[in-house]
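Tokens for chain A. Residues wanted.
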């Protein structure tokens, strides 16, 4: 009997083993074992990798695929022909026949990959003849309009093999946020920061991180500070930062007057200070236009990510806005982060659809409610944000409103929102400011740089000088302009549409003359109450 004792003991011990070790737990947010997915962990799968043409894949509570978001996009085999991707599906071959395809007689069938099967025709297609026919996916350079993007890839060059099937070896796989590899449309992914660091972004230290949405988390960097954050860090050699001038002015720096500024390196910029009004105006004009860098957009049309315009793009655009307001004695404005974000979504929409529209339809690519809200509240341009400011001030193509210029010079302008991609931009125009000026002219009274006459591809001599007011009705305005006290300078007056940055406005387009440096232009406006008169002294700021 003793020889049976040990096996029996093993049998008694077996149930005591832990057989749950390594088993999957659903849901715990981590897809393991036999689970297709778990929570947001889809194991890199998408609707496209499961055979669908698009949509948003999800995971069920049982850790299996939830295809409800994929099914509306369709797939090969659902017996519905998606003409953008398929020639046929199941028994549905559309109107295709051997005869109308020029393949003789016989019967057209459908392959398992939803392509026309012409093998039943008396004259089937010949692969390699450069003609896309029958069951061929491609032939030579004829891809039937298909591209790598259309096949679900992020980009690349589609090719055709000798079997007239797609060769996707040169296509770029679509990025998967969370796979630890920076792909198209991603700024970072997990620990892969694409070589970026806090110090590389201009901060004084900190540990850069990546968010779950594959965008940079700069919060740890911001804690270390940088030049441009508005806080003076003396230990790093800053004497000013942005608008924070530590109480210093041109006068405290030994000048008669002007506008002291802070450079992008957080040192004092005294070029706007001077000992004459021409010194002051030209000093500021020249200084504010040294850096016209647009910055680099971090968003992506492919992923409909608005991203943001990199430094110093927004700062440079705002600097130009305030330069033009300075020329006409209006107070500076600031940007609002919420409005910046909406304007950025607006710029994304314009870029994705390659046009501008103040009332974009919901069918637009990359449409968003915030972007549409900004589009209806903004100046829009087919240029990046910095270039756009000069363009708005000349304002070609708007002879009945001159609305872009008038909004920037409006009493109510600001705070604004500035959004830009590498090709389109939006500037939030509807503000809550109250500058309180009874009228504003452009060019305005006093020193005016001749360089501002033609800062873009058009000239204010073509679009016109302007006068705007919220309180003075200019409907009966009569304008006389003389140069150097005697020479008449005739103009054509246009009464501009109401409520584009001001209640009333007129344009004055030079007839047979142009604005020249070294001359003073006296403008007299009668027929209004009160009458308006002012002198514009045009100066060549390149001499300063």
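Reply:
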């Amino acid at each position: 009997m003793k020889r049976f004792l040990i096996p029996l003991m093993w049998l008694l011990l077996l149930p005591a083993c832990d057989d749950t070790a390594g088993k999957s737990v659903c849901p715990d947010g981590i897809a393991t074992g036999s689970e297709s997915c778990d929570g947001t962990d889809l194991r890199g799968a998408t609707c496209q990798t499961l055979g669908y043409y698009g949509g948003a894949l999800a995971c069920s509570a049982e850790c299996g695929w939830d295809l409800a978001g994929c099914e509306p996009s369709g797939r090969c085999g659902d017996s519905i022909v998606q003409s953008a991707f398929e020639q046929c599906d199941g028994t549905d071959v559309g109107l295709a026949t051997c005869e109308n395809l020029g393949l003789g007689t016989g019967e057209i069938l459908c392959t398992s990959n939803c392509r026309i099967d012409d093998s039943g025709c008396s004259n089937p297609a010949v692969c390699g003849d450069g003609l896309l026919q029958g069951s061929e996916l491609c032939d030579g350079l004829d891809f039937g309009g298909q591209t790598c993007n259309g096949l679900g890839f992020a980009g690349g060059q589609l090719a055709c093999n000798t079997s007239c099937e797609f060769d996707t070896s040169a296509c770029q796989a679509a990025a998967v946020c969370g796979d630890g590899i920076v792909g198209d449309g991603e700024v970072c992914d997990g620990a892969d920061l694409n070589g970026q660091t806090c110090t590389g972004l201009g901060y004084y230290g900190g540990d850069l991180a990546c968010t779950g949405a594959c965008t940079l988390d700069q919060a740890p960097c911001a804690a270390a500070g940088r030049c441009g954050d508005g806080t003076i860090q003396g230990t790093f050699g800053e004497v000013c930062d942005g608008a924070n001038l530590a109480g210093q002015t041109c006068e405290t720096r030994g000048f008669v007057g002007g506008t002291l500024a802070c450079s992008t390196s957080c040192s004092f910029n005294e070029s706007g200070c001077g000992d004459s009004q021409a010194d002051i105006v030209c000093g500021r004009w020249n200084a504010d236009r040294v850096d016209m860098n647009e910055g680099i957009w971090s968003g992506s049309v492919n992923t409909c990510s608005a991203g943001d315009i990199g430094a110093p793009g927004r700062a440079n655009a705002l600097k130009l806005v305030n330069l033009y307001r300075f020329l006409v004695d209006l107070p500076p404005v600031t940007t609002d982060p919420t409005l910046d974000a909406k304007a950025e979504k607006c710029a994304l929409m314009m870029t994705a659809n390659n046009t501008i529209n103040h009332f974009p339809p919901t069918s637009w690519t990359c449409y968003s409610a915030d972007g549409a809200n900004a589009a209806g509240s903004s100046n829009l341009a087919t240029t990046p944000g910095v270039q756009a400011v000069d363009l708005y001030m000349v304002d070609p193509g708007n002879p009945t409103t001159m609305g872009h210029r008038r909004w920037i010079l409006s009493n109510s302008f600001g705070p604004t929102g500035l959004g830009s991609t590498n090709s389109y931009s939006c500037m939030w125009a509807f503000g809550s400011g109250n500058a309180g000026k009874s009228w504003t002219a452009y060019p305005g009274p006093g020193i005016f740089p001749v360089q501002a006459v033609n800062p873009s591809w058009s000239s204010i001599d073509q679009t016109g000088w302007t006068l705007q007011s919220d309180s003075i009705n200019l409907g009966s305005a009569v304008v006389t302009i003389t140069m150097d006290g005697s020479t008449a300078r005739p103009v054509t007056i246009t009464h501009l549409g109401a409520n584009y940055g001001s209640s009333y406005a007129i344009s004055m387009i030079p007839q047979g003359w142009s604005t020249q440096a070294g001359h003073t232009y006296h403008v007299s406006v009668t027929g209004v109450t009160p009458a308006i008169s002012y002198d514009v002294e045009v100066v060549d700021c390149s001499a300063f």
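The chain has nine helices and 26 strands. Residues 318 and 334 are 7 Å apart (CA to CA).
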